[in-house]
Sequence to fold (695 residues):
Amino acid sequence: MSETTPPLSPPVAERRQHAVTQFGVTRQDPYAWLRAENWQEVMQSPETLPAAIRAYLEAENAYFAEAFETPHAELTEKLYREIRGRIKEDDSGVASADGPWAYNSRMLEGAQYPLVVRTPRSGGAETVLLDCNVEAGDGYFGFGGADHSPDHTMLAWAADRAGSEYYDIYIRDLATGKDRTEVIRDTADGGVWSLDGTGLYYTEFDESHRPFRIRRHQLGTPQEADEIVFEEADPGFFVSIGETLSRKFMVIDVHDHQTSEVWLIDKDGASPRLGSKRVAEREYDLDERNGVLYILTNADGAEDFKVVTAPAEMPDAEHWTDLVPHTPGVLILDLIVLSSHMVRLERVEGLPRIVVRDLRDHREWTVAFEEEAYSLGISEGFEFDTNVVRFTYSSPTTPQRTYDLDLDTGERTLLKEQQVPSGHNPADYVTRRIFAPASDGERVPITLLYHKDTPVDGTAPALLYGYGAYGISLPASFSVSALPLCDRGVVYATAHIRGGMDKGYRWYRLGRREHKTNSFTDFIAAAETLVAEGYAAPHRIVAEGGSAGGMLMGAIANMRPDLWAGILAVVPFVDVLNTMSDDTLPLTPPEWPEWGNPLESEEDFRRIAAYAPYEQIQAKGYPPIFALAGLTDPRVTYWEPAKWVARLRATKTGDAPLYLKTHMDAGHAGASGRFDRLKETALSYAFALNCMGLA
Fold:
């Protein structure tokens, strides 16, 4: 039986006077004090959180533990065991060859973190290069990846030990298995080896946690001596560093959500040179082959992107020549350029496909599959001079398969099929793709997964997941976590709403800035369609979303509280108006193209204020809500869900439970270990099942 009243009294956050005036509008923000003045310090040192804020967050954690977590511990543990039982614990990836070696990662049974390993390409004994379980210790451990040097003698690996996304880079001597004494501190991510292998390029944060600067570290020298290679002055742009697969160029990418610019370094020690100057709302990315740049871009109105070429010595847009013209409705998602072939991943009507182009004769052919909904991915290896590309395939019912594709013959070689130790029969489950009619006539795709014995008669409960921002699409892929829900008769639904690029770039454009509310109404339409077509019962739908999808959760809670049996909001971006009005926060200036700038534009201010979840809380009945947060989260700061829950609790009517759980030693991604993350998923699903009346 679903609980109606929490057994305990929840904590009540103190209200403090705090008025904010913008464009002649004054609004009260009585929970603004939950934003620590020393938030930058807290990101790296959680123990510095002011005592009053800590006391409130810990009180919310204690309330959640007593009111829900402990009473439902048995169900949570059962779900956790079911999910874990579907995971092959002693699993390994598929090795990727590079010169004389083949590199891989694998997991040990019972271990939280991976091993990085290699074997001789010709066969032989495995060497463990890095055991992240040893390096992790007992605290938070965010593994930032590992990259071997061009001569295979060293391994650069990165770790975040607070969840704040500040990484330290370590350099391991592979002959001795020991790390060198030099450590590159507080980087934005892992390092990239220089072309000559004598140093590393890495990215630095500014004081607002924006990746803004590229430095080069010369091995054997102190970090203080690292030269500045590039610095971006515009606070609205991020920078990152990579390289072309041909290893002819280092590539500095400068971007916000709509505009990009690339700088090239063709030899170590050389100054970066501009690819093509930034133009508002023009994006481009590039790779290189035989002195020619292959550029994926939306230039010249190519909304769904096209591929152009240019001489490497003349990379400016005036020298761009179309190679793959723009085709409206055919979104080019990714591009791999090899010595003789170009491989692109496209999406057409919500379904992906792989297109191979032989660059010697420009013959093209397509790789596609027959299921109603499925996911494809392509990945480049370490080698440029190859005729093989690797891809993955899965669907909601089909575990992931990894293939090597021979680009000359078209032959597919199955390298690995995801194992489900506790057993999995795809025929026991049904995958469907249906469409919800939006209020303006658009058709919103919905991917469904349910057990074959689940009746489609309007009685089943459903979990509806959505995101709808930044052009991020939700793949129709296999998830072991969804199956325990389906086994209990739940329809697992994914709404491919506007704001993502599930139906092309236009789909993204119609779900951002002035069109943002389309994301919310699309999601509501998806829920109504589940009911109308008999896939779900009224009042038995639980909504789930995280990060920007958490904003979605806050918005649909305000707009249609009657529609939901419960809401799962994971690190929810719910205080959007205040965050977008605070240009000292890490993501604010780069986010203005996505949401609007309420500091400069009254139109943007009024539009955001009209849907911002925190601002639109009203005195009415809300469904049960469970919000998850991370204290050291630099993306969605902890105070957003804390303020949201505090105002909801003080304002809403009715006795539906409202919970906040804050990880006091983790960030945006939640718990760091793989099993700890599964426990978090199980806890969330226990909440969902309780809301559905299945606990």
Observations:
- The chain has a mean pLDDT of 95.
- The first strand starts at residue 19 and ends at 22.
- The longest helix spans residues 51-69.
